Every structure is written in C-alpha cells, then in structure tokens.
Amino acid sequence: MATQNTLPLLLLALLPLAAASTFNVINQCSYTVWAAASPGGGIQLDQGQSWTFNVADGTTGGRVWARTGCSFDSNGNGNCQTGNCGGVLACTGYGQNPNTLAEYSLDQSGGLDYFDISLVAGFNVPLSFTPTSNGCTSGPSCAANVNANCPAPLQVSGGCDDPCTIFGAPEYCCPSGSSCNPTQYSEYFKGQCPQAFSYPDDYDGTTFTCPGNTNYQVVFCP
C-alpha cells in the first residue's frame, strides 16, 4: 500500500520523460580546451577527454564552442584568450569572438533538427558536428587550420576574427532586414571550410537537418 509520502513519487514515475538530445563533446586537439555550451555550461577538456550533456527538444539558438588560453580559479572565475563567456567556466551565455561555432535548433519546423558550423563569429579551433542516432549520418566539418593563413587585418591572439568585429561596416555585418554578399574575407573562410557559414547570408550547403531527438557529437580538432 502506498503511503502519503511515496504516492507522489509513484505518480511522477508514470509521467513521460521530456524528450532531449544528447551531445557528446570530444577534445582531439593536442592542447587543452575549455569546452563551452549554451545551454549546457562549460568544462575543461584535456587531450582525449570528453563531456556529455542533454539539451531539451524545442531548444533554439543553441551552440557549442571551444575556448582557448583560459585560466580559472577554484570558484570557476577567470578569463580566456578566445571564446570567453562572461569570465566563468560554466557558461550561461554566448562567447566572445573569435570562436568556431557548432549551432543548432532542435525539433523545429517539420519535426526536424537544424544544425551547422559557423565562422561568422570568426575561427579559433577546428571542429566537426556529426549526428550519431536516428540513422542520420551527415554533418558539417571544419577541420582546416584557418588561423595559419588568416588575412592580416583579421589576425588576433589565438584566432582569426570576423570582419564585422574588425571593421564594423554594413557589408560585413549584414544589418537586420538587409542582405549581404560575399567579401574577400568570407571567401577566405569559405575556401578553408566549404561546409561552414562564411558570412550571415551564406546558405550554400551549410545547413543540415536530422529528425528531432537525434543525438550529436562535436569534435575539436577532428
């Protein structure tokens, strides 16, 4: 016979669990990165280490990225050379440029997940973004060392920054409600990573889809 204390627990056990996608983040770089996710938080990943977290279906504007050159105290406060997110280890918002982004929105129109890699916020670490369930196998990769030949005006410590941040001009920033075209800088990014967004209106083979509730793997330095 259920007691007064146990009955609510039994009822909770009968409720359906909220649907979510599992993200597995792996650091294959030869150096330490501080993985960041919004939503998700953040964690230090030495070479070969991984981090797993769940994201609820219906989430929009999610992203995963690597931070480099970080130093945090025992309370998780500090700063990073690239990808810094408010000076905390466990991110609650987006990171500062430059940072290579794995972006996604889950269980959206048509019951699909939409995901991509973006260099619109610049580049700091190579990454791949791959589905791992639901029979979905196609995802983008940006494995090139974009920093190696970064155009001189975009070169910053630890990365290759985006031209909007550097110049602030409309042709690079694509203000809301307007459209923009490729530039010499976006063409550099596109040449290095053809599957990644190189500027805000770059929809040439850059958006990928999977059925909702698919799981994903993000690899730094694939």
From TrEMBL:
* Disulphide bridges: 29-221, 70-80, 85-91, 142-193, 150-160, 164-173, 174-180
Q: Which PROSITE patterns match?
A: THAUMATIN_2
**Residue span of the signal peptide, if any?**
1-20
Q: Which UniProt keywords apply?
A: Antimicrobial, Disulfide bond, Fungicide, Signal
The record's Gene Ontology biological-process terms are: defense response to fungus; killing of cells of another organism
Give the UniProt family note: Belongs to the thaumatin family.
**UniProt protein name:** Protein P21-like
Read off the lineage from the record. Eukaryota, Viridiplantae, Streptophyta, Embryophyta, Tracheophyta
